[in-house]
């Protein structure tokens, strides 16, 4: 059974940093790729960053140069390092994993950036 458990959200001032973690089971190698999405109030869920099993990454234009996605295969964990946070980064952040055409989601973690 696939499980994705996020942690690391919280309240931070603009310009600050947070690191989100997503622990995957049964194994991070079960997935074709993994990523982070976010959903702000009244907005659609949007891609933030993705990483493949080979380590290739892609980012939303709005976070390029500020956010970094990475993975620790030994810990079955994907991270999202978020630096230079802005109030517009405020959202619920969701971990996502894909096996072929099937998508799996974590429960989400709230990130709030105050100005």
Commentary on this structure:
0% of the residues lie in helices and 57% in strands. The strands form two sheets. Strands 2, 4, 5, 6, 9, 10 and 11 form a seven-stranded mixed sheet that branches. By secondary structure, it is mainly beta. The protein has no helices and eleven strands. The chain has strands at 3-7, 10-13, 18-25, 33-39, 46-52, 57-59, 67-72, 77-82, 91-99, 102-105, 109-114. Strand 9 and strand 10 form a beta hairpin. The mean pLDDT is 95.
Features:
seven-stranded mixed β-sheet, 11 strands, 115 residues, globular, mainly beta
Helices and strands in order:
Blueprint: E1 3-7, E2 10-13, E3 18-25, E4 33-39, E5 46-52, E6 57-59, E7 67-72, E8 77-82, E9 91-99, E10 102-105, E11 109-114
Parallel strand pairs: 2-11
Antiparallel strand pairs: 1-3, 3-8, 4-5, 4-9, 5-6, 7-8, 9-10, 9-11
Query: How much of the polypeptide forms β-strand, as a percent range?
Result: over 45%
Structural class: mainly beta
Count of alpha and pi helical runs: 0
Are there runs of 5+ residues with pLDDT below 50, and where? none
Average the pLDDT over all residues and give the rounded result.
Answer: 95
Query: What is the strand tally?
Result: 11
Q: Which radius of gyration do the C-alpha atoms yield?
A: 13 Å
How far apart are the termini? 40 Å
Write a brief caption for the model.
Helices cover 0% and strands 57% of the residues. The chain is mainly beta. Strands 2, 4, 5, 6, 9, 10 and 11 form a 7-stranded mixed beta sheet that branches. Strands 1-3-8-7 form a 4-stranded antiparallel beta sheet, with no helix packed on it.
